[in-house]
């Protein structure tokens, strides 16, 4: 039972509040204890919880759903005379502290329905005085008689574990069970949440027709994008570019700007894919220059571009992270409010973070990927969460666990406007503007904060301005060159960070931002 370390302490700590909630829902101590034990077993079966999951919240939500399926209650109080759903909403929001938005998601209801039902319930129970009703609910919950449930909860888990082991052994002997298990694995279903969040296999999703436009997100009430469905293909991502954003500086007619902190105000990135003929069936449109050398364009409507912060119209610019082999992409999902990662080859999806709150993004947020494409790191304020895509395991990195370039970020920010970290995490590349002539490319040793190489970029006829786009590999940096006077694009070039040799990179579009993937793909 080493897996359940800490579970008994959780039960002893939260059993009083859980029984109080269950008593409000059922009106009976007997029904309340049954409901709580059911929810505790649900928490225990997925123990230990992931880093971002609160077992108390898990237990409460389990009780709400269980009570709605089997609304057992005893008594004739005004609260118990409410319809079960309305009673759950009142108890959850006025007693347990759940938000109306959260309950709308939990119960699959429109937010307007949740708000109207709570308003009607408060009017019926306390003539519209929500604070007085909350005080009454707290007093009723305090009347709960709470025995120590930890022994019963752990015993129930032991029985369930033993029964599960026997069933697993029997299933292993049944060919049908083996076929079913193999089918699920082939479809790419992944469970990685104690609350039962599952990625739908690509074969079961509904897709738009080939002529259906994929619109960019227009964030707002009820108008957000849907979560992206991975097109499961052998094609790889060459690069990603952002879609067009609406004007974020909208007029407020002299009124104070509303606080939008933590909200995605613009979303949508376009992926350019490349590959051979075998990857074509999963894609809507493919153009082939010659057999085996094909390209496709795919829209990711929920990939965030702008994340609001502060109390004005300011926002952080966000970019996705693409693995060097072009197979995986990670980004902040405007549809789900959390970081996600997708694998195009398998169609799998992983959650990289909890649902974000404004405090997570006060100092910015970003996602990065390791050179081998396996480890994704999300930065949320002072927290850093690392996810192993292969296993789904999430670990919280200690403050001292950082690469040299991460430790030098403040110094780099003071000396350069834009920089890009090398795959090894040792070097950074940045452009040093020149007053006369063309700019220089600085390759900085992040450990010593010294310029390792100062490479003068060619003028190409006239003085040029440069911008670092990213690292092509451990040695080469991709830069964008423009005419310093006219601002015209001169092209993208791969620069050897050791000897300064340059080669043009064809096929990259001009634009405000670009994220590189596998530029060596067909």
From TrEMBL:
Highest taxon of source: Bacteria
Ranges for region Disordered: 195-261
Domain RNA polymerase sigma factor 70 region 4 type: 77-125
Record carries keyword Membrane: yes
Spans through the membrane: 165-185
Polar residues composition-biased segments: 200-209
A biological process term (GO) from this entry: DNA-templated transcription initiation
GO molecular function per UniProt: DNA binding; sigma factor activity
Pfam families per record: Sigma70_r4_2
Keyword Lipoprotein found: no
Keywords: Membrane, Sigma factor, Transcription, Transcription regulation, Transmembrane, Transmembrane helix
Family recorded in the similarity comment: Belongs to the sigma-70 factor family. ECF subfamily.
Name of this chain's protein: RNA polymerase sigma factor 70 region 4 type 2 domain-containing protein
């Amino acid at each position: 039972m080493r897996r359940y370390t800490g579970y008994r302490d959780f039960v002893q700590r939260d059993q009083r509040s859980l029984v109080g909630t269950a008593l409000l829902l059922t009106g009976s101590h007997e029904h309340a204890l049954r409901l709580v034990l059911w929810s505790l077993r649900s928490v225990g079966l997925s123990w230990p919880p992931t880093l971002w999951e609160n077992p108390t919240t898990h237990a409460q939500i389990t009780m709400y759903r269980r009570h709605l399926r089997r609304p057992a209650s005893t008594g004739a109080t005004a609260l118990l005379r409410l319809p079960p759903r309305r009673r759950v909403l009142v108890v959850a929001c006025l007693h347990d502290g759940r938000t109306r938005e959260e309950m709308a998601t939990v119960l699959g209801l429109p937010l307007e329905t949740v708000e109207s039902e709570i308003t009607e319930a408060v009017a019926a129970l306390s003539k519209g005085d929500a604070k007085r009703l909350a005080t009454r609910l707290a007093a009723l919950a305090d009347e709960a008689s709470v025995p120590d449930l930890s022994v019963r909860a752990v015993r129930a888990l032991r029985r369930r574990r033993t029964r599960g082991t026997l069933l697993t052994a029997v299933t292993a002997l049944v060919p049908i069970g083996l076929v079913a298990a193999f089918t699920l694995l082939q479809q790419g279903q992944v469970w990685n949440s104690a609350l039962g969040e599952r990625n739908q296999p690509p074969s079961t999703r509904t897709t738009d027709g080939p002529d259906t436009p994929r619109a960019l997100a227009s964030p707002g009430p009820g108008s957000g994008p849907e979560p992206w469905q991975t097109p499961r293909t052998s094609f790889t991502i060459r690069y990603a570019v952002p879609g067009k954003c609406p004007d974020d500086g909208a007029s407020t007619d002299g009124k104070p700007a509303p606080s939008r902190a933590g909200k995605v105000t613009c979303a949508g990135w376009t992926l350019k894919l490349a590959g051979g003929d075998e990857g074509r069936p999963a894609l809507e449109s493919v153009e082939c220059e010659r057999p085996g050398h094909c390209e496709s364009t795919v829209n990711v409507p929920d990939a965030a571009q702008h994340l609001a912060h502060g109390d004005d119209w300011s926002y952080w610019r966000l970019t996705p992270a693409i693995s060097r082999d072009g197979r995986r992409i990670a980004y902040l999902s405007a549809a789900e409010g959390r970081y996600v990662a997708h694998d195009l080859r398998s169609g799998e999806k992983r959650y990289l973070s909890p649902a974000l709150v404004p405090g997570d993004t006060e100092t910015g947020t970003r996602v990065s990927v390791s050179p081998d494409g396996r480890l994704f790191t999300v930065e949320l304020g002072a927290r850093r969460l690392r996810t192993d895509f292969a296993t789904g395991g999430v670990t919280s990195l200690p403050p001292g666990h950082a690469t040299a370039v991460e430790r030098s970020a403040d110094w780099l920010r003071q000396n350069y406007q834009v920089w890009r970290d090398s795959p090894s995490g040792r070097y950074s590349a940045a452009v040093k503007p020149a007053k006369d002539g063309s700019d220089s490319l600085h390759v900085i040793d992040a450990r010593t904060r010294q310029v390792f190489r100062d490479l003068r970029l060619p003028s190409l006829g006239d003085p040029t301005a440069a911008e670092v786009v990213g690292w092509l590999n451990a040695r080469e940096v991709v830069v964008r060159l423009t005419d310093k006077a006219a601002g015209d694009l001169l092209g993208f070039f791969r620069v050897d960070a050791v000897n300064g040799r340059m080669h043009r990179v064809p096929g990259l579009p001009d634009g405000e931002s670009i994220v590189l993937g596998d530029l060596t793909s067909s």
